[in-house]
Design brief:
With about 375 residues, this protein is of the alpha/beta class. α6 (about 160-170) runs parallel beside α7. The protein has helices spanning about 5-10, 20, 65-70, 95-105, 120-140, 160-170, 195-205, 215-220, 230-250, 250-255, 275-285, 315-325, 350-355, 360-375, and strands at about 45, 50, 55-60, 105-110, 150-155, 175-180, 180-185, 185, 205-210, 260-265, 305, 330. It has one domain: TIM Barrel. α5 (about 120-140) links the parallel β4 and β5.
């Protein structure tokens, strides 16, 4: 592992074929508003002690995947694996570490938001995921020690293969797996996915769920057209909400109570209206006659982790009231500028520090304690 100075010197003197630049570790800095000097965030202090900060929701790309897929049914232009149609911000040459320091973030967990679930070619998916995970592992191993971790990717359209890929990824040093909310319209609560959930529970693997192609998968493609960025403001949280409700009502969280699942974007809409789940079966018993849950539906939310990307103090306070502060972790969606756009520029760590009503220990949990425990990394 290299120190910070060696890492930055390596970037400065790198050739066009530099490993880290090619693999997108040095992402753009869209989080820094125009006209703002990217100074380092002041140390995060609570009770006179420096507190570690961990961001569990960030994005990265593996540009070489584009060449890897040439001549296959998955060939596409742009930065394959970048998510959101090959967002070029994920492949730019600006210093990602400057961005982290500006946000006050000590650690980022890298995610490839490209799930490749449409392919029916098992051999291709075996080779692609291995290639992609090897690159992710290389990013972590060649970066500054302790500042980057990454989730493995898996081909969930083949549950047994995905199970093996998750296990192999963890042996490479990757963390659990990142997954979408469904597989081409099939719910991940279906019995065929139990082999994956069982292994994730056995390995205590952190699973990060992030939506993709949500408009299509939620059936809202036509209704979200027009102004308002409804594909991300409506469809993405809806996909997460559907994923969670199926995991609850279809009994996955009963069968596998030890799962360590974290959902992006504050868990979608579910925490905002969770009590409706408890009343639904009482009002419409015929639609729940085959349900055999061991607890009230809302109680299962205590088994789920969510990120803190809910924007306002009142939203964070409500999220904590529903999920519990011990189940919330920092999430920025970096490099998508969610935390730097809109009516104010409240950094994620300041969002947690400035929201009233939390104890010091609860703030420490949300800043890093929960994430370190969930990921199994040093606190």
């Amino acid at each position: 592992m290299r120190n910070r100075r060696q890492f930055l010197q390596g970037i400065a003197g790198a050739s066009a074929g530099a490993f880290l630049l090619r693999d997108g570790l040095m992402g753009a800095m869209p989080q820094i508003p125009a006209g703002v000097t990217p100074t380092k965030h002041k140390p995060v202090m609570i009770g006179g002690k420096k507190i570690k900060t961990v961001d569990v929701h960030t994005h990265i790309s593996v540009p070489e995947v584009t060449d890897f897929l040439k001549g296959t049914a998955l060939a596409r232009g742009g930065g394959a694996g970048a998510g959101a149609g090959g967002n070029p911000l994920l492949n730019a040459g600006s210093d990602r570490l400057v961005n982290m320091d500006y946000q006050g973030m000590d650690v980022q967990v890298l995610t490839i938001n490209e799930f490749w679930y449409t392919s029916t070619d098992r051999d291709l998916m075996t080779r692609l995921i291995d290639f992609q995970n090897q690159k992710l592992a290389g990013m972590v191993q060649n970066g500054i020690a302790g500042r980057f971790y990454a989730f493995s990717t898996v081909a969930l359209q083949f549950p047994d293969l995905a199970t093996k890929q998750m296990e192999e990824g963890m042996k490479m040093g990757l963390k659990g797996a990142t997954i979408g909310g469904s597989v081409t319209g099939k719910e991940l609560s279906a019995p065929e996915y139990d082999v994956f959930w069982a292994k994730a529970e056995e390995l205590q693997a952190p699973i990060f769920m992030h939506p993709q192609a949500a408009a299509q998968l939620t059936g809202t493609t036509d209704r979200i057209k027009g102004i308002g960025a409804l594909n991300v403001t409506v469809a993405n949280p809806l996909e997460t909400t559907l994923f969670l409700t199926h995991m609850i009502f279809d009994g996955v969280l009963d069968r596998h109570p030890g799962l360590k699942i974290c959902c992006a974007h504050g868990g979608g809409y579910l925490p905002s209206y969770a009590d409706r789940m408890d009343h639904g079966c009482g009002v419409f018993p015929q639609q729940c006659k085959d349900m055999t849950l061991k607890k009230r539906p809302t109680e299962y939310l205590k088994q789920i982790y969510v990120d803190s990307l809910v924007f306002t103090s009142e939203a964070l306070r409500h999220l904590a009231a529903v999920m519990g502060p011990s189940h919330i972790m920092i999430g920025t969606d970096n490099p998508i500028p969610w935390t730097e756009s809109g009516t104010n520029y409240l950094q994620p760590v300041d969002h947690i520090l400035d929201t009233p009503g939390f104890t010091d220990s609860q703030r420490i949990e949300m800043l890093s304690g929960n994430a370190c425990k969930w990921l199994g990394i040093p606190a």
